[in-house]
Specification:
This protein is α/β, with parallel strands linked by helices and 204 residues long. 37% of the residues lie in helices and 17% in strands.
């Protein structure tokens, strides 16, 4: 399931982190969360009956016409977003996005990141984001957990995990390594804008 939720969290991880990136399988979540619920919507239900805050449609880039549609008429990405709004409006303690970002482009992922941060600010909802896209994880959470076979292998920030070889280096990090071989002295970053600023500073 792409969206799950829980009203029973009593784990220390959530004391200091409202957003936790998670690299592993959904089954590994039992190490930190219990009583996980799946989200299901009935095919013949109209969208307007499922959501209250139409301003959330704006944040996620959805047209108001979607309110007239039935669940069965939604595209895969539209269905994901409506499920997300519907789940968050129930105000659970924790929302889990399980590879939810698949099928969305960079711009869409930025909107999703903005949405979950809005929900957290309004309702103090915690989020776990399971994804293999470290750029999406970087947008949503600076703290990650890496788990395998229900054993936590790492907890900390993304950059440190990359430095330790726990995550494959993405192209931006490989570029920084190459530049540093020529004494560029660039710090690791997953943000293109920050990288451009660092390059500019190193040149001038």
């Amino acid at each position: 399931m792409e969206i799950m939720y829980s009203n029973s969290i009593n784990n220390k991880y959530f004391n200091n982190h409202s957003f936790i990136g998670f690299i592993g399988e959904a089954s590994d979540l039992t190490t930190i969360v219990s009583e996980i619920n799946n989200v299901k919507l009935k095919d013949n239900t109209k969208v307007k009956k499922l959501i209250k805050g139409i301003t959330y449609l704006d944040i996620l880039g959805l047209n108001y016409d979607i309110l007239k549609n039935k669940v069965c008429k939604l595209s895969d990405t539209e269905l994901k977003l409506i499920k997300l709004i519907n789940t968050c409006e129930k105000h659970p303690n924790l929302v889990i996005l399980n590879n939810f970002d698949l099928g969305f482009n960079y711009k869409d992922k930025s909107k999703i990141s903005k949405f979950i941060k809005t929900i957290n600010a309004e309702y103090k909802t915690n989020f776990i984001i399971i994804s293999n896209d470290i750029f999406f994880l970087n947008k949503t959470s600076k703290h990650i957990i890496i788990s395998k076979n229900k054993i936590i292998k790492y907890q900390g920030d993304l950059i440190s995990a990359i430095k330790q070889g726990l995550i494959d280096k993405p192209p931006i990090i490989k570029f920084i390594d190459l530049a540093n071989e020529s004494n560029a002295k660039l710090d690791y970053t997953l943000d293109n804008k920050e990288l451009l600023k660092a390059i500019y500073r190193s040149v001038f």
